[in-house]
Amino acid sequence: MAKSSLVGHRSLTGIPLRSAVMGAVIAGLAINANTVFAADTKRLEEVLVSARKKTESLQDTPISLTVFSEERLAVEGISGLKDIASKVPGLTIEPFPINGGSLRIYIRGIGIGDIQVTQDTPVALYIDGAYIARSSGTSMDVAELARIEILRGPQGTLYGRNTTGGAINLITRRPNTDALEFSQILSIGDRALFRSKTSLNLPVTDTLALKFAYLAESRDGFVDNTGPGGDFGDRDIQGARFDLGWDISDRIRLDYSYDRSELEFYNYMFQAVTPPDPNGNKGQSNAIKQSAQARSRFSNRRLSSMATTSPLEASNSDVEGHLLVLSADTDIGEFKYIGSYRELKDASYTDLGGGLGSTEYRLDTNVYSGPAAQMATGGDTPLVRPEIRQHQSSHELQFSDVVEDWGIEYILGAYYFEESAVEDNSPFHLQLTAPIDGFEDAHIVNLLSQKYNVENQALAVFGQITWTPKILDESLHFTVGARHSRDRRYALKNQRDEVFIEYSPISGVPLVLPLAELAQNPVLGPVLGPVFVEAGLPGDRRFDNVSGSRRFKDDSFSFLTEFEFSDDINVYGKVVEAYKSGGFNTRDPQLDGNQGAASDGIDYGVGFADGFGEEKARTVEVGVKSEWLNGRIRVNADVYNTKFNDMQMNFILNGTIADTKVLNAGKASMSGFEFDAMALIGDDLTVTMEYAYLDAEITEVIDSFGNDVTQRYAFSAAPVNSYTASADWVVWRGVSAALNLNINTSYMDERLGGGDVQNAYTILRPYQLWNARLSLDDIEFARGKLSVSLWGKNLLDKEYETYAIDNLPHADRAVLWGDPLSYGLDLAYRY
């Protein structure tokens, strides 16, 4: 397949050279397939998945699905979710911009760019069948993964709420009683990389086995901090996991796991690229944009160093979890119970300053000792690291059976989830200070305190039934699914947000006063008052125990038809619905819809207490799963159209730093085509290619005045074209060892990088990355197997952006960069 590099939404032309070459190679292989494959009966390995809550072949699963099997995980050096960031077309996984311990996950352009305890992501994450509400932490790196499954598109029947974009399953290797197993993996690399992962499987009896795992990892970032504190991007991980597997009887199985992980990291600083437009209006930042620009560092290339003013503090994520799975195979069917409890504590410190270490221009939450602090608190304001504390529990009961005489297979289930969380950004502390343009002896100081409390509950009942009529050699299947969901959400907001003016004349006593009193001041009012007339700065913004409570309910359905043309070709068509719960936006500057215009001058008719409603997605999809030439070529493809009603749009208000609105913005539509192919060439070479085309559009947005403002909105993280390609080659086979080479590339098209409002300053450029791994495997050593691997990522040292914003006072465009060239050595021993 030809791949396209687009600027905007062009047609499928302008194919990049490397893409065209790769496509030509695969096309040539297909043309000469009869010659290449005729001499051998070896076929591609079967891939098993559990995407439909049962174990079945990937080729029998009517879902647009990418699977990383255990073998593929090992070949490509994948140990957790973050490692597949550029390996799946249509999937975007990136660290959250101001919290490197959390992930932003988008599938088919659907995701969420903000992390709040009052909002849910539309891509659901599951570990061994248990829903994970928050993506912080690294517990998935501790476990030995058996596979990763990425389910594209709405999955509302079996997976429930918050799957309008899709779902990701992480399935771990369970303890087994077959034999004592031990593995030790050591990794070293550039930027002081050190990683050690230890795993021990211990059979206790013929029916009971235990498993222990421990992970330690440290690595430096790729941007030095020449100011005080830690270096940007440095991280240190410690994690442990315990698993128990017990075959209580021939029919009853119990699995239990406990995991704990601790992550310490230093967030990156946004790098300024484009200075503010002198004639532009930056809203709340307009009065300080020139002075902020003068104290900032700019470059359109990736910088190797930047500087903070205050010490760059460490951020931390601590995660602890329990999981219990009980399965019973009875005479009337199979019962399964999945129970989970998790706790999260996440504290994140970020410096959004200009990178020159200016003492006068600061955008951080560290200690502040100026006159405004003395007036507001009677002393210095403290260091604050915004913190999230969350705990969740869930229970799911499933019953499934097969009635062969009637050609029926079904699953029924019930689900309950509850969550309690606090987002704590208190006490009163610094958020911003900067000189006022044209008045170098006058400074603006913004002090802030925020605290939000959340209580959420959800319950659901669901069922899915498949009927195979006794006709056409039982090659026709009909499936119907339904899910009824109910949600209750409660949020409490406390906030104090004040702006002060500090005036320090060359002679005389320094003066400080709240911005709300500026106009009445006889000294500063006539001079500075006109500067802030149109700035929209909150002189004194307060939320005192402002609460909101909302309930939601939904019925989602799915309809599916499959037809097996042969054992190797399966086509399907389906209609699937999904629902994403509504919630509350903690960054909304208005108490409620009666307050009038927001900080960007627009009256949206809603505020924090009103919250926002649920969104609904419906997808129509047609696909094919096929194998050719005796299973040596695998080709899967699908086309789809998804319609969204009342879609939740999360965007930053123009001219503000942190004010946002979440609106059920109207209607949206996306259509796409997805294709993946795998070919086994001879005995020693496997070539894989995946491609995704996406045409996503916000089709209707009507504001609170009845105006059509659709042109303002667009999907973020929605590249028109994306693809991956890889080649796995057994270079040499010996009696007790083999040399394996993996080369892979990924391409990501141009996309909007920050927020859901169309803005040229936040567009991310297209990029292509190349990676390679050379491994000497299966070396007999100490009664086990030894592997040595050399690897490199981003081999061409491509400079590419992962996020862009336009709302910093000192820049109309500021970006975060992706990882540069990295390389290392893995040493693995398995017994």
Any idea of the CATH class?
Answer: Mainly Beta
Helical content class: under 10%
Report the structural category. Answer: mainly beta
User: Strand content of the residues, in percent?
Assistant: over 45%
The major sheet is characterized as: 22 strands, antiparallel, barrel
Averaged pLDDT, please? Answer: 88
- From the N-terminal CA to the C-terminal CA, the straight-line distance is 42 Å
Number of domains: 1
Number of strands: 41
Rg over CA atoms, rounded to whole Å, is: 28 Å
Oligomer designation = single chain
Overall morphology: globular
CATH topology: Maltoporin, Chain A
Q: Give the CATH architecture.
A: Beta Barrel
Query: Would you identify the regions where 5 or more consecutive residues have pLDDT less than 50?
Result: 1-39
Separate helix tally: 7
CATH superfamily: TonB-dependent receptor, beta-barrel domain
Q: Layout of SSEs?
A:
Layout (H helix, E strand, L loop, with lengths): L16 H15 L1 H5 L10 E2 L6 E2 L7 E4 L1 H6 L15 E6 L2 E9 L15 E5 L2 E3 L6 H4 L2 E8 L13 E7 L8 E9 L3 E11 L4 E12 L4 E2 L9 E13 L4 E14 L5 E4 L14 H6 L10 E2 L8 E16 L2 E15 L23 H7 L9 E17 L4 E29 L2 E29 L8 E28 L7 E4 L10 H4 L11 E27 L2 E12 L34 E14 L4 E13 L2 E5 L7 E5 L2 E15 L3 E16 L20 E13 L4 E11 L2 E2 L10 E2 L2 E15 L2 E10 L7 E5 L7 E5 L4 E9 L1
Parallel strand pairs: 6-9, 13-17
Antiparallel strand pairs: 1-2, 3-8, 4-5, 6-7, 8-9, 10-11, 10-41, 11-12, 12-14, 14-15, 15-18, 16-40, 18-19, 19-20, 20-21, 21-22, 22-23, 23-24, 23-25, 25-26, 26-27, 27-28, 28-31, 29-30, 31-32, 32-33, 33-34, 34-37, 35-36, 37-38, 38-41, 39-40
